Automatic annotation (TrEMBL):
Keywords: Carbohydrate metabolism, Glycosyltransferase, Transferase. SUPFAM superfamilies: (Trans)glycosidases (SSF51445). Belongs to the disproportionating enzyme family. One of its GO terms (biological process) is carbohydrate metabolic process. This is 4-alpha-glucanotransferase. One of its GO terms (molecular function) is 4-alpha-glucanotransferase activity. It comes from Actinacidiphila yanglinensis. Its EC number is 2.4.1.25. It catalyses: Transfers a segment of a (1->4)-alpha-D-glucan to a new position in an acceptor, which may be glucose or a (1->4)-alpha-D-glucan. Gene3D superfamilies: Glycosidases (3.20.20.80). InterPro entries: GH, Glyco_hydro_77.
Length: 690
């Protein structure tokens, strides 16, 4: 039982429930391995007793945590006072040192100090989170797009940040869209081939320069004459790449795009910055500090030693070692080059959000935060002290996957985060919100708990490790409050009881996908589709996501045939098709009963419109239109369960005939305009809840 108590103190679950009526014990080996990743030896009864004694001793002597998080209007310092020695004096001041006579009620950051009667002192951060995020200022709709897939006639073989600015400006001004939600733009791990998944990045803190539009960098106009012809050749190469994708059905090739862009950027590097631009760059470097220096240093070292830092010479595996300090000096030019790339990318990100706001979007660009980082990448190297070594994030076995999942991403260590006052987490959220009107949190349940899988063990042998959700949500809310941004949590799949309620109470929107919205309350044993009035208000409502079939594929059953062709089905094709057809028929029947399908179910485009009329009839604060849905695209951007079998994350947006479409063609699509008009009209006619 001592080991069970020790696990509980560190937030490590010793059982889990794959279903409501089933409890499964976690293997002892897993508990020992997970505690070891948290710096706790639980391998023997003696080590467990020693670890418990050490924990109790630390708790007895600790006055203040490095960071105390409160929620405005929902708590005071009384609970903290109750666990401190009697007559301990607590004082609060602003970060500039001005004392406050009462506990702060306004959201913000403060300094908390404690002095005991025997003279012991301690200080720490006090964070007061907003009681509730306000959400978007009005009900609105917008497009959800994978930016790489949204090519224009000017991009270099994949969608870029100039395309994002153009998509936002056009859809906001012409269609009245309120936001554009995009895939994570995190920096990828370099290599050939580069992992195309935006959800397994090298760094979540910094963007990927592959999304730069080279011609929009101011220095491009001042290339010297001897480099202009080289630049022209690169532009011709970019046009050829683009034509391969758009005209010859080739896949998006990030490596080929980066080969061209990196050559162009090396040329641009020779153009001296103007005094104003130089000053802006210097300010950016000072503002970004050690984090950018680490990322740029990793990028320079990866050029020499390869992208997996575990295989580097021993002295370079520690970012704070003397060897790394010397390498940073020796590679100063390359370190500065990668810092410069980050500045350029950050500038174009800012321009995209400004274009969205100038177009009248109440939200603008909604960025996406992946659940973790690649174990070989920049963040894993520079943040080894707060990431769990030898552990991977995944998902437990469930009704859809009896083997569980291993995503290959090292998780935050909750104890290490708390010891730093959550500084790395706060820094990450702040960076993501620099140029955002909103932030989507992938697998938002990870702010409460994550499934940890010890290295070398199957996902079935994992366990949940719990985080301080009050702190994680509070810090997220404060950063979003200060940025004036909305927060959307991706809460699909297995969600622990109370999570959605807590999110809604704090103003964090959830994600509701039409095909999953059924009555699971128990009142309806058939679990029929939920009518619009029964949907939650605090959500982004959509018909599909990047991991699911497009609406056209769902309606036609093409997604079942695709999965059969790739041998992903676990049951006979006929059975899968019958079940899928019955589900679609159930939804179409509901749409017909509600009068939302006057054209009839035989017209595919009409059914897609009806699906979105339905979404607009719900109370959801945000309605998301999957951009491929607007033009009848059949293909999913990502097909879970595949890697080389399917071209995940490499497909351009295409029409119903499978032909890729440029951004210009999307903007001229009568089908897209008609769908957006339907949603806009439906939102305008539906009364807003008081």
């Amino acid at each position: 039982m001592d080991r069970v108590r020790l696990a509980g103190l560190y937030g490590v679950d010793v059982t889990y429930r794959p279903t409501a009526d089933t409890e499964v014990p976690v293997p002892e080996e897993t508990i020992v391995a997970v505690l070891a990743a948290l710096g706790v030896d639980a391998s023997t009864p003696r080590s467990v007793k020693d670890a418990l004694a050490a924990y109790d001793q630390r708790a007895a002597h600790r006055l203040l945590d490095p960071c105390t998080v409160l929620r405005a209007g929902h708590g005071t310092l009384d609970a903290l006072r109750a666990r401190l020695p009697r007559d301990t004096r607590l004082t609060v001041s602003t970060r500039s040192g001005e004392p406050l006579t009462t506990a702060p009620g306004e959201p913000g950051r403060y300094v908390l100090r404690a002095v005991t009667p025997d003279g012991r002192t301690a200080s720490g951060d006090l964070v007061v989170a907003p009681a509730r995020l306000p959400g978007p200022p009005e009900r609105t709709f917008g497009f959800m797009a994978q930016l790489y897939s949204t090519l224009s006639s000017r991009s270099w073989g994949m969608g870029d940040l100039a395309d994002l600015a153009d998509l936002a400006a056009w859809s906001g001004r012409t269609l009245g869209a309120g936001f554009v939600q995009i895939n994570p733009l995190h920096a990828a791990v370099p290599g050939r081939p580069t992992d195309p998944s935006p959800y397994r990045p090298s760094s979540r803190r910094f963007p990927d320069p592959v999304y730069l539009r080279v011609e929009e960098i101011p220095e491009y106009a001042y290339l010297p004459a001897d480099l202009r012809e080289q630049a022209a050749r690169l532009l011709r190469g970019a046009a050829a790449l683009r034509d391969e994708v758009l005209l010859k059905d080739a896949l998006i090739d990030r490596d080929a795009v980066w080969d061209l862009k990196s050559k162009a950027l090396e040329m641009l590097r020779t153009v001296r910055l103007s005094p104003g631009r130089r000053a802006a760059y210097a300010d950016f470097l000072a503002e970004q500090g050690q984090a950018l220096d680490d990322h740029a240093t990793w990028s320079a070292l990866a050029e020499l030693h390869g992208p997996d830092w575990h295989a580097w010479p021993a002295g370079l595996r520690d970012p704070r070692s003397p060897q790394v300090a010397r390498a940073r000096s020796d590679l100063m030019e390359r370190v500065d080059f990668h810092s410069w790339l980050t500045w350029l990318t950050d500038s174009q990100l800012g321009a995209a959000q400004q274009a969205a706001r100038d177009a009248g979007m109440p939200v603008g660009v909604v960025h996406d935060l992946a659940v973790g980082v690649h174990p070989a990448g920049s963040d894993a190297w520079s943040m080894q002290d707060v990431l769990a070594a030898g552990i991977s994030v995944g998902a437990p076995p469930d009704a859809f996957n009896s083997r569980g999942q291993d995503w290959g991403l090292p998780p935050w260590r909750p104890d290490a985060l708390a010891a730093t006052g959550y500084a790395p987490y706060r820094d990450l959220i702040a960076r993501m919100l620099r140029h955002a009107g909103g932030l989507r949190i992938d697998h938002v349940m990870g702010l409460f708990r994550l499934w940890w899988v010890p290295q070398g063990r199957p996902p079935t042998d994992g366990t949940y490790v719990r985080y301080d959700a009050d702190a994680m949500l509070g810090l997220l809310a404060l950063e979003a409050y200060e940025a004036g941004a909305v927060v959307i949590g991706e809460d699909l799949g297995t969600v622990e009881a109370g999570v959605r309620e807590e999110m809604a109470d704090r103003g964090v929107l959830g994600t509701s996908v039409l095909w999953f919205e059924r009555d699971y309350s128990g009142a309806d044993p058939d679990r029929r589709p939920l009518p619009p009035s029964a949907w939650r208000e605090a959500c982004l409502a959509t018909a599909t996501t990047h991991d699911l079939p497009s609406t056209a594929a769902r309606l036609t059953g093409e997604h079942v045939v695709l999965r059969h062709r790739l041998r992903l089905l676990t049951r006979p094709l006929v059975q899968e098709q019958a079940e899928d057809a019955a589900e679609v028929a159930e939804w179409i029947a509901l749409l017909s009963r509600l009068g939302m399908l006057p054209e009839g179910a035989a017209d595919e485009e009409a059914v897609v419109k009806a699906v979105h009329r339905f979404l607009a009839a719900t109370p959801a604060r945000m309605i998301g239109i999957w951009l491929p849905d607007a033009v009848g695209d059949r293909r999913p951007q990502n097909l879970p369960g595949t890697s080389t079998e399917y071209p995940n994350w490499r497909l351009p947006v295409a029409g119903a005939d499978g032909r890729p479409l440029t951004l210009e063609q999307l903007a001229a699509s009568s089908r897209l305009h008609a769908l957006a008009d339907e949603v806009r009209r439906a939102l305008a006619t539906r009364p807003t809840r008081p």
